[in-house]
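Suppose a colleague, Dr. K., hands you the sequence of a protein chain of 257 amino acids and asks what its three-dimensional shape might be. Before reaching for any lab equipment, you can write down a predicted structure in token form. Begin with the sequence itself:
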Amino acid sequence: SNILIPILGSVVVPEQGNTTLPNSTEADYILFKCRIFSRLVTNFHISTLMHVPNIQQVLSHLSKFTLYVLHTAIKVTMRDVEQYQEVPDPQEPCMVAFNYLIGMWVSLISNDVFVRLVGNNGELTNTSENATQDRNMITMYNFLKGCIAPIFQTAFQGRLQLALFLVQTGVDDDDEFEDPSLLDAQMQDLAVLARVDVRNSLSMLRNALLNAARRLQQNVGDSNTNVRMTPGVSPEMLLEELWWICHFISYVLTQDE
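The predicted structure, expressed as tokens, is then:
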């Protein structure tokens, strides 16, 4: 705690309305901070971190910082696409920083205690000796769900936003993930985060799938009908949206052992 809290205290999350994007030096500094946070947090078991003073405030701030880094990565990528017609770079510092942070969140929830609690549907053990510890773990797990849920939701929405933007600008992103392992690693981590609250995660994905399918049906409807196509939305954009939704669903429903 003597190391984590002072470092975290030096991180200021800009206001939501702030549209200033980092320059290359600032982006590298964001990546540097995220590497430190990831290494500090992943070096400790959640049962140890629970003894850190104000740990819930620490994790809440880390969640907000993760969202800031993700929003920044998406905006930087869109800026580069628009200004320089560049294919999205998966090694862009802010995107790499985000990958470090989601790996950190995965390490927090991927431990035997949480797995046992989830397997028992959150029920306490019958051993009074462990009852207090289990209650504390359940409280922490439920708190982590609240920190992690917006990260997965924003990552999903951000990926759709970026994919549709690429179709609109006519930039061929076939080379973005020339190394499929880059996408696979990020998707696997995001899927782990989604499973922390799998019911709500799948509900969100299902609703997005039905909505996209409905809009696609309207856009390619029978020319004899009076259905009007949605302005500014092409079938290509909707197909791209459907592809990514199905891609997310496939990762959430399956898990590599």
